[in-house]
């Protein structure tokens, strides 16, 4: 509890980590606010069903608060003003404004995870996929970092919950704004899960490697960070991990 986890990927797709954490926290009975900016609800629901979790049922019982970024963007660009006049929240309204202020999105997160009377959820979780979309929609790197900072304070510190964020990018990326955000988040993360494509290219039996960086240096005492590296293969309903070079196909 109270930890910030950064999911990072380079030369591969790390979205399997998002699906893992989403199903993991829902099965654990936590209240989850999922800011999904990359895919539709039906996409996440289909994958979750393979993992034994129903997002539809979680929404109905109030355990999952789902923000479908694709639909919200279309509403902001082509929708009418009826929603705002009816008092409905518009978390991504910065798209149509001159300033890249993410305060409305933060208010949505804070309200979604705020404790209510009779609320018995054992934990609070903010899951965001993926952070780079906010930059693509026009938010500045400073606004994105401010948003993440306030979410950490509200969720990790005050509610003793967890924040899990996915961000794409690598050292050879030409997107300077995205690299600035990712690098800054690496310095403030308690745990970094970094999925990388194989340097040797595609392999049908080894899909990539995962670096697990535990930021012990953030704890009192200033110990050295702990780094573990595994290779993995993504299967239909799970992911197999093994030490580098010890794939069953290689052995």
From TrEMBL:
The keyword rRNA processing belongs to this UniProt entry's keyword annotation: no
Cellular localization per UniProt: Cytoplasm; Nucleus
GO biological process: tRNA wobble uridine modification
Alphabetized CDD domains for the sequence: Elp6
Keyword tRNA processing annotated: yes
Pfam families membership: ELP6
Gene Ontology CC, one term: cytoplasm
Primary location recorded for the protein, binned into one broad class: cytoplasm
InterPro entries: ELP6, P-loop_NTPase
Keywords from the UniProt entry: Cytoplasm, Nucleus, tRNA processing
Pathway assigned in UniProt: tRNA modification; 5-methoxycarbonylmethyl-2-thiouridine-tRNA biosynthesis
Recorded family membership: Belongs to the ELP6 family.
UniProt xrefs under PANTHER family: ELONGATOR COMPLEX PROTEIN 6 (PTHR16184)
Protein name: Elongator complex protein 6
């Amino acid at each position: 509890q109270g930890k910030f986890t950064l999911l990072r990927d380079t030369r591969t797709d790390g979205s399997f980590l998002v699906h893992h954490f989403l199903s993991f926290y829902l099965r654990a009975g936590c209240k989850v606010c999922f800011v999904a900016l990359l895919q539709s609800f039906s996409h996440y629901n289909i994958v979750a069903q393979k993992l034994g979790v129903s997002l539809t049922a979680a929404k109905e019982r109030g355990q999952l608060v789902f923000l479908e970024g694709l639909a919200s963007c279309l509403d902001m660009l082509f929708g009418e003003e009826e929603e705002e006049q009816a008092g409905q929240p518009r978390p991504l309204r910065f798209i149509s404004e001159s300033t890249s202020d993410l305060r409305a999105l933060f208010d949505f997160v804070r309200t979604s995870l705020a404790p209510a009377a009779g609320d018995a959820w054992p934990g609070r979780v903010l899951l965001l996929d993926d952070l780079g979309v906010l930059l693509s929609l026009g938010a500045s790197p400073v606004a994105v970092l401010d948003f993440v900072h306030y979410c950490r304070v509200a969720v990790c510190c005050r509610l003793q919950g967890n924040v899990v964020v996915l961000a794409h990018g690598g050292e050879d990326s030409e997107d300077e704004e995205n690299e600035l955000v990712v690098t800054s988040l690496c310095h403030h993360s308690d745990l970094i899960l970094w999925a990388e494509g194989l340097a040797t290219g595609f392999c049908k039996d080894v899909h990539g490697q995962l670096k697990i960086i535990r930021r012990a240096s953030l704890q009192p005492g200033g110990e050295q960070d702990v780094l573990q590296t595994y290779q993995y293969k993504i299967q239909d309903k799970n992911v197999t991990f093994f030490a580098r070079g010890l794939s069953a196909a290689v052995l």
